Amino acid sequence: MKRQAVIYLISLVSICCIVIGCRKTNNHADEVGAHDLAQIKDSGELVVLTLYSSTSYFIYRGQEMGFQYELSEQFAKSLGVKLRIEVANNVSDMIRKLLAGEGDLIAYNLPITKEWKDSLIYCGEEVITHQVIVQRNNGKTQPLTDVTQLVGKDVYVKPGKYYERLTNLNNELGGGIHIHKVTGDSITAEDLITQVAQGKIPYTVADNDLAMLNKTYYPNLNIGLSISFDQRASWAVRKDCPELAAAADKWHEENMTSPAYTASMKRYFEISKAIPHSPILSLREGKISHYDDLFKKYSKEIDWDWRLLASLAYTESNFDTTAVSWAGAKGLMQLMPQTARAMGVPPGMEQNPEESVKAAVKYIAATDKSLRTIPDKQERIKFILASYNAGLGHILDAMALANKYGKNKNVWDNNVENYILLKSNEEYFTDPVCKNGYFRGIETFNFVRDIMSRYEAYKKKIKK
């Protein structure tokens, strides 16, 4: 009898343990799967993981931008939730963060591989990426149209996937490609593309989306020769978020031809970023533009030479009051919509020349205050111009980098300007002193130099 009682007690304890164990297992399952589409909608926020890059996500003039960012924003809006971006250090870190529940969705051209198919659901638009030869259309020689024509040619690439693909291709062709491995830390793939456009090097290699984006800055590039197999890529979510994956699939399918999606695609990969420029309006009459009176009137408020303000306007819009940039900046002084509102421009008046100049001067005055730590007023002007182009955050990052590496953070030429260039390099934009991530610094580098050199030309030709 006692033995039966003992057996009964053991059975009862076993059943209780099984029940408790099941409950724990179910609770754990609930925890793991606790953030699919329904929970995201309840929270009111979609947390998107991506990387800093010219094609994914970056900050420009204080505004979040990037092709993947814009698509994420459109997708979040379709779900009726707010978007929050979390930037990872690299692809591995991005996947780790997703699996750890630090984000809901990876918005990036994530390569589709067997390695991650058990952990991830690939979703959204499946894009095809491949590597291309970046070359220059110079009108003198025919561009390469076949990989066999690379034999005997000099191709400059960074270490990593581009170098590996080129080496493999060279082996497939039996040798003969002159491969130059560019190991300098301060040189990026985009820098090499720029060097091709400028005729400094003949060829480099890049992913097709990066090459397409850079072609909008340099129309003389030819990116038609593919040298790698196609790689499928897409967005991704955790395996336990099938509803979110289905929503992303449906959104992409329904919105690939929408005006918003099309506008984003054109903004980054089709619209030319170069502004055509015209000469001085009338050298004989001493006129730079039709808006000289405005420059003279408002330049006094910031104690600038009006010809410097004119040089800024010329660089920004070519004195075209109807100009709208690829990033959405409008009017004579090309203010971003958010900045124009903050500076008091009435809605719908962004292309009014006086409102534009008045707001630009107000913005310059505010930036000047933020940069008061730069003691030399003439030197500070270059920092203000750089901030006008890039946004103050990136200039503060470049100053911090200059200071860290032993340069003068209060001098632009050959000091801080060198570090705005390096803001497109992962080693530098991920440095702890940088707070604003990736930035295509070559545009700002050239912007300041162009304005100052044109200002010197105006001073020689046009009376004050």
TrEMBL record:
The keyword Membrane applies. Its main location: membrane. InterPro entries: Lysozyme-like_dom_sf, Solute-binding_3/MltF_N, Transglycosylase_SLT_dom_1. Pfam families: SBP_bac_3, SLT. It is found in: Cell outer membrane. It is a peripheral membrane protein. GO terms for cellular component: cell outer membrane. Residues 48-272 form the Solute-binding protein family 3/N-terminal domain. Keywords: Cell outer membrane, Membrane, Signal. SUPFAM superfamilies: Lysozyme-like, Periplasmic binding protein-like II. This is Transglycosylase SLT domain-containing protein.
